[in-house]
């Protein structure tokens, strides 16, 4: 165990969970109702019953242990308290539930433990960490740690009002973060910041940049750091790499106190195949499918949950609600939903098994996702669930009562792929790719979308976003500002991966910090300022967020100027005359006297210009405002004569509202 982890274990935290008193004759937390709901697949708070729980029996302090191992012959608890001796502290099978349980005296908070599991025929003996463990050792055995989850929250103001921050008509701009590489202590062996250190630095930075939320890449315990958290072994434990559970709570608490929501990346689509994980838990395929065609993921060589097994559904549903219950999170981004929906995902003929009707849909996974959203929103109507879903599966973000999956939002992977392909293209040839920018409006209102520029776009040889942009260095920075401006003025909520806001030059690497020293150079500082101003404008202007999910919120003015690679469109709010004109130039050629039709006569105020010298641009623009003229253009009686900067965009607000 690392010194830092040991120190965290010994911290004396106030307001710990109260010790429970168990009946001395039958020391158990499990009622008959618990067993029924568990085996039925509808238990949503199993973490209160399974795992390790500090308690008392007849005045003797210790811990109650319970674990599901339905096909095991024997299960015992091994740990520091008995020299890791198998069979010394056996657990008893509870009826026909498949659960083994028992009370062990003198076990204290901070004790390391595992379950020693023996198969029916004795051929399989393995030491497994606790599937419901809330804290894990990092080194040596990778053991679970007996712990409590007591914490005194100070985020009541946020919790009482967060529902207002998650409505579809309010701004939502998300900063995606990998906790281990956002910033590092280079002077201290290049180590990652702890939860406590992140709580001191991250909230202030996110607030200064104007983001409304952070999204953490998976924080659940994972043994292989380069998996970025997507190969989970401890679904109920925030990774101890950065501290203990209370210190992670403190990070969430501090973000809430600064008015910033917290979204967790959740991975119910697959799990790690390590021996110390959930796979082959009792010598049989308990959590995963036995057939490789259903139980093994071809892309990630990981196990796939058996969504049709009732006890597995109870495990996953309990896990989802656990993070809302205990850690006050505000949303869940569900990873790799497309891989859950289709039985033939990334599989060739003969490598998958059709459903009972002969189709490709994974009916059990679909039913599970619906149940997940039903339970989350029934318990927490003031949060959001978000699907990373890359296929054309319909109604992912539509309510259950109309046949949808019930997610709040869906990532618009089509927008991301089309836009980045376009931005990589040399401007000379962009007129042949113009529909990559305009096609989105054909489907923009089929779902409630979030527009992601995530970690997946800056790894595996794709380069940083900056170096994916076409042209020389000046043009790459201009392109990047244009990309972000285009993202923020399209309908949908926004997500940007860390480093994008400072025009990171290097591809993201989980072992090193972001290159914060780049902010010493004006072009990088200019991009950061541009992103902060985009966040401010997006949050301030109702026309840019109020109708993110409604067709009335977007209107083309000119989507046909392929030869010049320009676009012009309107963003509308609910209030009459609350409208913003967006005009984009995707070439390095300035467009002077570029006439654009407008819905109203009067003054149009230039509220943002990506080519401003403040951001590292050339300074071309419209002198702060333009006056419309009674010149017919784009089917409208009035129009404005604009200067469109090279590789730039301008936002103009109808002036009647400028003083309101």
Word description of this protein:
With 660 residues, this protein is an alpha/beta fold. The protein is built from 14 helices and 31 strands. The model is unreliable at 1-16 (pLDDT under 50).
Q: Which range does the strand content fall in?
A: 15-25%
The shape, in one word, is: elongated
- What oligomeric state is this? single chain
How many independent structural domains? Answer: 3
User: What would you call the structural class?
Assistant: alpha/beta
- Name of the CATH class of the largest domain: Alpha Beta
Largest sheet: 8 strands, parallel, barrel
Rg, Å, rounded: 27 Å
Distance between the ends: 59 Å
Which fold name corresponds to the CATH topology of the largest domain? TIM Barrel
Can you name the CATH architecture of the largest domain? Alpha-Beta Barrel
Can you list the strand order of the major beta sheet? Answer: 10-13-16-19-20-21-22-23
Q: Can you tell me the residue ranges where pLDDT is under 50 for at least 5 consecutive residues?
A: 1-16
Task: Find the count of extended strands (DSSP E, 2+ residues).
Answer: 31
Helix fraction by DSSP (H/I, runs of at least 4): 10-25%
Tell me the CATH superfamily of the largest domain. Glycosidases
Helix count from the secondary structure assignment: 14
Key phrases:
660 residues; alpha/beta; Immunoglobulin-like; TIM Barrel; eight-stranded parallel barrel; six-stranded antiparallel sheet; 23% helix; elongated; disordered N terminus
């Amino acid at each position: 165990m690392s010194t830092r982890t040991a120190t965290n274990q010994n911290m004396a935290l106030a307001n710990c969970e109260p010790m429970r008193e168990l009946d001395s004759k039958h020391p158990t937390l499990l009622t008959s109702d618990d067993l029924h709901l568990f085996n039925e697949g509808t238990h949503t708070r199993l973490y209160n019953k399974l795992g390790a729980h500090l308690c008392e029996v007849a005045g003797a302090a210790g811990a109650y242990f319970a674990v599901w191992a339905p096909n095991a012959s024997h299960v015992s608890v091994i740990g520091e308290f008995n020299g890791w001796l198998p069979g010394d502290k056996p657990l008893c099978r509870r009826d026909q539930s498949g659960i083994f349980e028992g009370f062990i005296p003198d076990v204290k908070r901070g004790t390391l433990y595992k379950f020693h599991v023996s198969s029916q025929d004795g051929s399989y003996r393995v030491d497994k960490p606790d599937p419901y463990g809330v804290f894990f050792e990092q080194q040596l055995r990778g053991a679970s740690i007996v712990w409590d989850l007591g914490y005194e929250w100070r985020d009541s103001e946020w919790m009482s009002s967060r529902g207002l921050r998650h409505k579809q008509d309010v701004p939502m701009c998300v900063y995606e973060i990998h906790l281990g590489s956002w910033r590092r202590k280079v002077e201290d062996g290049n180590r990652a910041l702890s939860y406590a250190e992140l709580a001191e630095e991250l909230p202030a930075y996110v607030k200064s940049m104007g983001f409304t939320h952070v999204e953490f890449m998976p924080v659940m315990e994972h043994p292989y750091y380069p998996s970025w958290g997507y190969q989970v072994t401890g679904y109920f434990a925030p990774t101890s790499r950065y501290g203990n559970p209370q210190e992670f709570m403190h990070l969430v608490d501090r973000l809430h106190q600064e008015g910033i929501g917290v979204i967790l990346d959740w991975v119910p689509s697959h799990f790690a195949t390590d021996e110390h994980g959930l796979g082959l838990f009792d010598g049989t395929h308990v959590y995963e499918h036995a057939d490789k065609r259903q139980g093994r993921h071809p892309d990630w060589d990981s196990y796939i949950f058996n969504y049709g097994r009732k006890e597995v559904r109870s495990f996953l549903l309990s896990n989802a609600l656990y993070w809302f219950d205990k850690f006050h999170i505000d949303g869940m981004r569900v990873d790799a939903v497309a891989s859950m929906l289709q039985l033939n995902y990334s599989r060739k003929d003969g490598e998958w098994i059709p459903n009972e009707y002969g189709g490709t849909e994974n009916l059990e996974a679909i039913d599970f996702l619906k149940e997940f959203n039903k339970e989350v929103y029934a318990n927490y109507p003031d949060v959001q669930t978000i699907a990373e879903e890359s296929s054309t599966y319909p109604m992912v973000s539509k309510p259950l009562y109309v046949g949808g999956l019930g997610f709040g939002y869906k990532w618009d992977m089509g927008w991301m792929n089309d836009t980045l392909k376009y931005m990589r293209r040399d401007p000379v040839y962009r007129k042949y790719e113009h529909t990559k920018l305009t096609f989105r409006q054909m489907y923009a209102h089929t779902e409630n979308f979030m527009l992601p520029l995530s970690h997946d776009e800056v790894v595996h040889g794709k380069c940083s976003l900056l170096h994916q942009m076409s042209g020389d260095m000046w043009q790459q920075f201009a392109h990047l500002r244009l990309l972000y401006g285009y993202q923020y003025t399209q309908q949908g909520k926004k997500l940007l991966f860390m480093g994008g806001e400072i025009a990171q030059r290097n591809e993201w690497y989980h072992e090193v910090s972001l290159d914060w020293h780049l902010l010493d150079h004006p072009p990088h500082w200019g991009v950061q300022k541009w992103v902060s101003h985009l966040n401010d404008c997006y949050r301030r202007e109702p026309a840019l967020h109020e109708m993110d999910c409604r067709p009335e919120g977007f209107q083309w003015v000119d989507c046909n100027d392929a030869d010049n690679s320009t676009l012009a469109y309107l963003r509308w709010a609910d209030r009459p005359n609350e409208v913003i004109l967006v005009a984009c130039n995707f070439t390095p050629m300035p467009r002077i006297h570029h006439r654009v039709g407008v819905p109203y006569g009067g003054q149009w105020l230039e509220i943002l210009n990506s080519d401003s010298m403040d951001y590292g641009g050339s300074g071309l623009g419209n002198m702060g405002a333009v006056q419309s003229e009674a010149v017919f253009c784009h089917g409208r009686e009035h129009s404005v004569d604009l200067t469109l900067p090279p590789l730039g965009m301008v936002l103009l607000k109808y002036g009647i509202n400028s003083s309101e």
